[in-house]
Amino acid sequence: MFAVQRLERIMEMLYEEEKVQVNNLVKILNVSDVTIRKDLRKLEKDGIVIKTHGGAVLKKAEVVSEKDNIGEADFTNRKKDVLAKLAWNYIKNGDTIFLGSGYTCVSMAKQIPDDCNISVITNNIEAIPYLKDKCNTLILIGGEVITHERNFFTYSSEIDDQLKSYNINKAITSCSGIDLKFGVSFSTEASKKIISAILKNSQIWYLIADSSKFNLVSPYKISDIEAPEMIITDTKLEEYENLSNVVKYKK
């Protein structure tokens, strides 16, 4: 079992039980306790767990502090920051990733690990300063600069041709809305065209969406809700419980 697969399984157990024991993980994952302790150290470094005697517990997210003490926008952004950090656990050295537009993807760029050995393709102008010194290769897709809801990203009608020469392992995006019937949607036509082109050239799609995006429908549908390999969120509403691709970050 590869390291990323072990981490996924460990996190699944953490989401369900909020704690794990080294001895139990050794049996389930069929690896040594040295390997498990190394995995837990990584999760602790990433701010996901707190190590305890013989195991670890899921770290309570700072994002769930009382809303009365902070503004609504700050409260939502802190949730997005936690989800963005969590997403890095699904990226491995050697990957070529696409990083989409919006606050969540900028937060991912800000939290890129120092030892990250990846290449990044993006249309997110605001993410560039945080990525430029930490990637093997950094490619900004060319085109017109679009401003939408305080986000700045590029778009070209020739994006399909621009992407043909790239093999993208993983696409990481946010969205405007997620709905059981309507699926995943975006608020602008430009965003829809960009993501459609990216998904044609990507092997895996990770969608990061905080709970405020659920049960919302925006004008431009991109896919059914089952299309993303994984939806990383801070909650799992009852009606979404049967979806195997929704990963919940427990409060």
UniProtKB/TrEMBL annotation:
SUPFAM superfamilies: NagB/RpiA/CoA transferase-like (SSF100950), Winged helix' DNA-binding domain (SSF46785). The keyword Transcription regulation applies. One of its GO terms (molecular function) is DNA-binding transcription factor activity. The keyword DNA-binding applies. Residues 3-58 form the HTH deoR-type domain. Keywords: DNA-binding, Plasmid, Transcription, Transcription regulation. InterPro entries: Carb_Metab_HTH_regulators, DeoR-like_C, DeoR_HTH, NagB/RpiA_transferase-like, Tscrpt_reg_HTH_DeoR_CS, WH-like_DNA-bd_sf, WH_DNA-bd_sf. It comes from the Bacteria. PANTHER family: AGA OPERON TRANSCRIPTIONAL REPRESSOR-RELATED (PTHR30363:SF44), HTH-TYPE TRANSCRIPTIONAL REGULATOR SRLR-RELATED (PTHR30363). This is Transcriptional regulator, DeoR family. It comes from Ilyobacter polytropus (strain ATCC 51220 / DSM 2926 / LMG 16218 / CuHBu1).
